Amino acid sequence: MNTDPIADFLTRVRNAAAANHRVVDIPASNLKKEMTKILFDQGYILSYKFEKGKAQDIIKIALKYDGMTKESVIKDIQRISKPGLRKYASSSDIPRILNGLGIAIVSTSKGVMTGKQAQQANVGGEVLCYVY
């Protein structure tokens, strides 16, 4: 049993990128699926596929690498709100990551979205992670 599935998701992606793996398999949940869609839309991953498993569904994520230097597009991915200490931000307090070069993934009442989308929708929520 995993006490923090979001941290597990982020750690699997971080470790796969550090080891230069092409594909990483992650146990699926609705929140992880939404986070995967955001990473794809923002250009941090190459592609993804949701597969049916025997016990649990699986997310297959193809990681994206720079063509010239062969480095991962994801430089760092950090968990912000943890089960022991939740971090919430209003729409005006959502942080900018690296002056707009990174994204914050926020869980709001209108769904999971980037920090920029949450500011435009004028909703706050739980800051799940930073990606840059």
Total count of helical runs of at least 4 residues: 3
- The secondary-structure class comes to alpha+beta
DSSP E strands, number = 8
Distance between the termini: 29 Å
Report the order of strands and helices: HEHEEEEEEHE
Radius of gyration: 15 Å
Residue fraction in strands: 25-35%
- Please give the oligomerization state of what you see: single chain
What is the global morphology?
globular
Mean pLDDT reading: 96
Query: For the report, how would you describe the main beta sheet?
Result: 5 strands, antiparallel
Helix percentage = 25-40%
Low-confidence stretches: none
Describe this protein with a few key phrases:
132 residues; alpha+beta; 5-stranded antiparallel sheet; 3-stranded antiparallel sheet; 3 helices; 8 strands; globular
Structure overview:
Strand 2 and strand 3 form a beta hairpin. The protein contains 3 helices and 8 strands, in the order H-E-H-E-E-E-E-E-E-H-E. The chain is 25% helix and 30% strand. It starts with a helix and ends with a strand. The protein is α+β, with helices and mostly antiparallel strands. The protein has helices at residues 5-18, 30-41, 115-121, and strands at residues 23-27, 45-51, 58-63, 77-79, 88-89, 103-108, 111-114, 125-131. The strands form 2 sheets. Strands 4, 5, 6, 7 and 8 form a 5-stranded antiparallel beta sheet that branches. A 3-stranded antiparallel beta sheet has the order 1-3-2, covered by helices on one side.
Gist of the model:
The protein is an alpha+beta fold and 132 residues long.
